[in-house]
Every structure is written in C-alpha cells, then in structure tokens.
Amino acid sequence: MSSARSNRLKPALNKGRHQGHTRHDRLSALRSLLIWAKCNKAVFHNPAARIRLGRRERPPLQPLTPEKIRSTIAAAATLPAKLYIALAAIRAARPDRIRSLGVGDVDLSTRRVTIGGRQRSPDDLTCPLLEQWLAYRREHWPHTANPHLLISTESALGLGPVSHAYVTDLRRAGLTLEQLRIDRRLAEALTSGGDPALFLAVFGGSETTAIRYAANARILLQPPHETAPAAPPRTPGPILDNEPGRP
Fold this sequence. Notes:
By secondary structure, this protein is mostly helical. It folds into three domains: 1-57; 78-167, Intergrase catalytic core (hpI Integrase, Chain A); 179-226, no CATH class. Helix content is 47%, strand content 4%. The chain contains ten helices and three strands; from the N terminus they run αααααβββααααα. The chain has helices at residues 3-14, 20-39, 66-75, 79-89, 95-99, 126-140, 177-191, 196-203, 207-221, 224-227, and strands spanning 106-107, 112-115, 118-120. A three-stranded antiparallel beta sheet has the order 1-2-3, with no helix packed on it. The N and C termini lie far apart (76 Å).
C-alpha cells in the first residue's frame, strides 16, 4: 500500500460516519486486521497505526431484574443446567471453572467445594444440587474414569471436560452464565457498601477487579440528587430596604 494511498485513507478513518462506541469498535477491528495484514506482508503500511482510539468510557453495571433471573431459572430444565446456574449466580464461578471442576473438589461431608483453588462452603441451594448430581453420576456412569464433576454420555468415555454446548442454551431467556456471575459479584459489592476489602474476602481475585466493582457499587449507592446534573443558579431577588447589610 503506497504512502499516498494511506494518506487518503486517514481522513476517512478519522472522520467516518460512525461515532461513539460504534466507531471505537469498528476502528479497533480495522486496526487489528491491518496489523495482521502487515505482519503477514499483505500490506506495506498500516494507515490506522497513528489513529488514537481514545479511552472508552463504559456505563456502570446495573443489577439484573428479578424477572430476567426468574426466566433464566425457568429455562434450566436439566439438573446440570440448574447446577451451572447455582454455581454462577450464587458462588460467582466462571463457566470454564465449573467445567473444570473435579469430583475431588467437592466434599459434602465438610460442605466444601473448591473452585479455582479457593475453598467455599456450598449454600443451602447448591449443596442439594451437588448431592443430586453425584447420585445421578454414580447411577448412570459407575465405571467412568473421567475425573471431572460434570460429565456427559460422550465425555464419560474419555477424560476431558464436557463441551460448552452441554449446558442448556440460556440465551433464549436473555441472560448468560457470565451475566449471572457478574450480577452476583455486583450484588456483593453493593451489600458491602463499595468496600473492596470485603469483596476480596468473599471472592478473592485481583485488587483491580475489587476496586472496579467497589467503584461501580458506590455510583449506584449515591442518592439520586447527587448523581443528577446540577441545576442552574437562581437569579437573586431584589434586596428589601429593611435587609441588614444593605449599603
């Protein structure tokens, strides 16, 4: 790609028809594509190399509505799907970590479950689901050598985890397991009053994530009059003759 042609492309990339998040997303995708093309010597020059995307301000996370959560629970018709929802919506576990759970990570005698190397106590909803699943697992695959907690008819013949498509597709209800996990973490941040230390004590993880959720919670906990735009100053009325301090 010649230098003259790249100079003609820069104004088009900088002053396109798209604005806001749409422009940011499309320009980011275009830059990634051109970087790949240059690395593979498909082009000689990247016209988007010096275009700045700017900082993308994301709106604060909002809690899920009870109606959406109820519809998601109703869409879970199988026992594994219910267990996935319980671990994501109550224990805030990532879907991949749920898939990688082993049978040895669950100890119902001490009411302990280890998720991502962190021991947690199953609640009154998750514990019965784990008991039902373990009983179902022993009944249907008593001789399987698969060490994973969640297995299927296909994965029981091997040693790998179940596929992503194994769980009921919850997108029909409008929510995903990741959304349920984020909502659980946000609820904990709101309950703690936006304290990152309490957030870390419950979920662990990085300090950056705890601070981000805590800041999000403090925004939501602000009174409405503090988040509303400031009203224009009122025009002072006439000063009466009997007011003190009048010259």
